[in-house]
Automatic annotation (TrEMBL):
Transmembrane segments: 6-27, 55-72, 78-97, 109-130
Matches recorded under InterPro entries: MAPEG-like_dom_sf, Membr-assoc_MAPEG
Keywords: Membrane, Transferase, Transmembrane, Transmembrane helix
Subcellular location: Membrane
Protein name: Glutathione S-transferase
Lineage start: Bacteria, Pseudomonadati, Pseudomonadota, Gammaproteobacteria, Alteromonadales
Molecular functions (GO terms): transferase activity
Main location: membrane
GO cellular component entries: membrane
Length: 134
């Protein structure tokens, strides 16, 4: 059985590179602030850990949904749009939290972008289920 998921593969790869960069930033801050475990007194490290954690909380589900959508034959433009929106949203979220732990335009774009992608994916898959079940 040959399954080819080029769009999911592209965004899984790009998001993995972003996850790697977020991880390296934590390592860099641990070295800089001499923190072996936890976050110590470093505000920068606390923020970096939350950026990384938030990514780990939302991105795997969205990637899984992207794979399922691609397997179900979703339109190529829709898949590219969702993948690109998620990638940009996650970059914005990281930049926004890095700029300020409070509200910022980039953090807002990141949160709304991530939630929009997840809601569109859920809607598509529920709609495909209902359409296939009828």
């Amino acid at each position: 059985m040959d399954i080819n998921l080029p769009i999911s593969m592209l965004y899984a790869g790009l998001l993995t590179l972003l996850y790697f960069a977020l991880s390296v930033n934590i390592i860099r801050l641990r070295w800089r602030d001499r923190v072996g475990l936890g976050t110590g007194d470093s505000q920068d490290l606390k923020v970096a850990v939350r950026i990384h954690g938030n990514f780990a909380e939302y991105v795997p589900l969205s990637l899984l949904l992207l794979v399922v959508m691609e397997l179900q034959g979703a339109a190529v433009d829709l898949l590219y749009g969702l993948g690109a929106a998620l990638f940009v949203a996650r970059i914005c979220h990281a930049l926004g939290l890095t700029m300020s732990v409070g509200p910022s335009w980039a953090r807002t774009v990141g949160v709304l972008g991530t939630f929009s992608v997840l809601l569109l994916q859920a809607g598509y898959l529920i709609g495909a289920f209902i359409g296939g079940a009828l």
